[in-house]
UniProtKB/TrEMBL annotation:
This is FAD linked oxidase. SUPFAM superfamilies: FAD-binding/transporter-associated domain-like, FAD-linked oxidases, C-terminal domain. Transmembrane segments: none annotated. Gene3D superfamilies: 3.30.465.10, 3.30.70.2190, 3.30.70.2740, Vanillyl-alcohol Oxidase, Chain A, domain 4. Its cofactor is FAD. One of its GO terms (molecular function) is oxidoreductase activity. It comes from Rhodanobacter spathiphylli B39. One of its GO terms (biological process) is respiratory electron transport chain. InterPro entries: FAD-bd_oxidored_4_C (IPR004113), FAD-bd_PCMH (IPR016166), FAD-bd_PCMH-like_sf (IPR036318), FAD-bd_PCMH_sub2 (IPR016169), FAD-linked_Oxase-like_C (IPR016164), FAD-oxidored/transferase_4 (IPR051264), Oxid_FAD_bind_N (IPR006094), Vanillyl_alc_oxidase_C-sub2 (IPR016171). It comes from the Bacteria. Residues 36-215 form the FAD-binding PCMH-type domain. The keyword Flavoprotein applies. Keywords: FAD, Flavoprotein, Oxidoreductase. PROSITE patterns: FAD_PCMH.
Length: 464
């Protein structure tokens, strides 16, 4: 091995899988953003916590930066290695370590895929409720690092609500066991919650003890067509007041066209500007009749133009595909993405200003937006015109994002709802956090990672 640093690492850990082939460097060195050219030093695939600790201590001695890597499904550049970093992939650390029926917890390694966690929970007659379209490839460690939310936050909350305990390797190579699955624990600072959402800048999640809950109640899925944006919050308020909602997701007709072109089937005839996919408890005939009654009220008030209710699991999956298939259908266009949030009560005012801003700043450019209205989270995807080169397109989008960040600041919102800050949004962190908060964040980072080797350049710049 030509690099003496890697030779030293191999000497310390002879069993460590260490990849240096060009194809591997490209594959593991990027995430879904595709905006940076991968250029990692190597890819380390440890199989044990001890190996992770040895790697981190080696990195400190050799001043090598580490990029923790899970499923690399992130959209903010948080898992990009473009400056000679060592990518530390947890994909081999993907086992179930313990199931506790009394505590109703599942302990897994950080590299376990979300879908496998969900399937394991179902095998024990329980539910791990955090869910989103990337379930088949994203990892639990990555979910925890970004406090991932998804389509059922309205019922179950974000990832942090479901983490009972963590084992984390800090930037200094120490192993912390945080909270140990306790329900009540008021003995000092809760570092577990601090690590959740820290984007790999404070520590590497090697194990997680996850809370499980009862299986979901029988439910029904409904697709609604809406005549205008003003009806969106009216319908949400009506359905939330009279039904037990599990999810309430919206998207535009433009988004629908892309999903249909990608192979999905149209469920409602005609063209409508806005759509909602909602899922709600339907335990018995009374609840099912109530749902039809609520739909009728929305129809009478002019808030809904049309709708369809799934009559089978296959139909329910087909309706959900119209929402969950949006990101995949847009991926070939490599869209510029914004992932923002405001308080639910602030959604109408923000939506009005956001639409005006996007229309003014992106004339002739297709902008696809959709999101989780039930938790105030909107996803904005800007598609590059074929006649505009990428540098000019990115420069334009960055200008608009600065304006969007200012609008969010006025509404008390966040520039990152669930994708993290990463490389993409670090320039806009001050729109969400005060200077005092950012200074404290830097101070915390220095305590957990004194030499700054963990995911440098993500979250905030390293220079100031």
């Amino acid at each position: 091995m030509s690099d003496p640093r890697l030779a030293d690492l191999s000497c310390r850990l002879p069993e460590l899988r260490l990849l240096t082939a060009a194809g591997d460097l490209e594959h593991y060195g990027r995430d879904w953003t595709r905006r940076w050219i991968p250029a990692p030093l190597a890819i380390a695939l440890p199989a044990t916590v001890d190996e992770v600790q040895v790697i981190v201590r080696w990195a400190n001695e050799h001043a090598v930066a580490i990029v923790p890597s899970g499923g690399r499904t992130g959209l903010s550049g948080g898992a990009v290695a473009a400056n000679g970093e060592l990518v530390l992939s947890l994909e081999r650390m993907n086992r179930v370590l313990d199931f506790n029926a009394v505590d109703r917890t599942l302990t897994v390694q950080g590299g376990m895929i979300l879908q496998q966690v969900q399937e394991t929970a179902r095998g024990h007659g329980l539910l791990y409720p955090v869910d989103f379209a990337a379930r088949g490839s994203c990892s639990i460690g990555g979910n925890i690092a970004t406090n991932a939310g998804g389509i059922r936050v309205i019922r179950h909350g974000n990832t942090r609500e479901w983490v009972a305990g963590l084992k984390v390797v800090t930037g200094g190579g120490d192993l912390l066991e945080l909270n140990r699955g306790l329900v009540k624990n008021s003995s000092g600072y809760d570092f577990r919650q601090l690590l959740i959402g820290s984007e790999g800048t404070l520590g590497i999640v090697v194990e997680a003890t996850l809370k499980l809950t009862d299986p979901p109640l029988p439910s029904q899925v409904m697709l609604l067509a809406l005549p205008d944006m003003d009806a969106l919050m009216e319908v949400f308020a009506l359905f939330r007041a009279q039904l037990s909602l599990q999810a309430f997701e919206f998207f535009t007709d433009q988004a629908l066209q892309h999903v249909l072109a990608h192979g999905a089937q149209r469920a409602i005839d005609g063209e409508h500007p806005y759509y909602v996919v909602t899922e709600f408890d339907a335990v018995d005939e009374q609840q099912r009749e109530a749902a039809l009654g609520v739909f009728g009220q929305a129809l009478e008030r002019g808030w809904v133009s049309d709708g369809v209710i799934a009559q089978s699991e296959a139909q329910a999956a087909a309706l959900w595909r119209l929402r969950e298939g949006i990101t995949e259908s847009l991926a070939p266009r490599r869209p510029y993405k914004n992932d923002v949030s405001v308080r639910i009560s602030a959604v109408p005012g923000f939506l009005c200003e956001m639409q005006a801003l996007l229309a003014n700043e992106y004339p002739g450019i297709e902008v696809i937006w959709f999101g989780h209205i039930g938790d105030g989270n909107l996803h904005i995807n800007v598609l590059r015109p074929h006649d505009l080169d990428e540098p000019a397109f990115l420069a334009r989008c960055e200008k608009v994002t600065r304006l969007l960040a200012n609008t969010l600041h006025c509404h008390g919102g966040s520039i990152s709802a669930e994708h993290g800050i990463g490389l993409v949004k670090r320039a806009y962190l001050e729109s969400t956090r005060s200077a005092a908060e950012i200074a404290l964040m830097r101070g915390v980072r220095k305590v957990f990672d004194p030499r700054g080797i963990l995911n440098p350049g993500k979250l905030f710049t390293e220079s100031s």
